[in-house]
Amino acid sequence: MGVWKVFTASLQLQCDKKHITAPLGSDFLLSCRYENQLLSNKYWCRGESRRTCEVLVDSEGKTRSTRVHIVDARSRGLFVRVLDLQKGDSGVYWVGIDRPYADIMTSVRVVVTEGENTHCRWRGFNIELTGITMKPPCPVCQSADAQDHSDVT
């Protein structure tokens, strides 16, 4: 019975990445899908265990961050954007959906490298929701000299 519950929960929340490796100073965007009837608070937390992770930002604005943004676009998905990665940002994170008795959660490992920082020139659409514009990861990158960042405004 316990295995069935874990399998069902994993179908209710799925993200496009389980492991993110990115250079120091760069940004990343995580895109997740969830079952539409899950209308409660969504959050991004950090910690090795899902039971003890610290919430960094949530979709209801109870917890805020200057470098981490979360947008719940309902039918279009859930988006987590982390800006200006620092070496100390490496670790295990969780995307979670509040639910009575047991939150629905999925883990993401983030590794920040000290390699050459690249910035992307965005060519495509913006995701504009509730006053926040997010630009998904871009296919064309250039050296750090160009300084053409994708922004969350």
Automatic annotation (TrEMBL):
SUPFAM superfamilies: Immunoglobulin (SSF48726). The lineage of its organism: Eukaryota, Metazoa, Chordata, Craniata, Vertebrata. GO terms for molecular function: transmembrane signaling receptor activity. The keyword Cell inner membrane does not apply. Keywords: Membrane, Transmembrane. PANTHER family: POLYMERIC-IMMUNOGLOBULIN RECEPTOR, PTHR11860:SF96. Residues 17-113 form the Immunoglobulin domain. SMART domains: IG. Gene3D superfamilies: Immunoglobulins. This is Immunoglobulin domain-containing protein. InterPro entries: CD300_family_receptors, Ig-like_dom_sf, Ig-like_fold, Ig_sub, Ig_V-set. It comes from the Eukaryota. It is found in: Membrane. Pfam families: V-set. GO terms for cellular component: plasma membrane. The keyword Membrane applies. It comes from Pogonophryne albipinna.
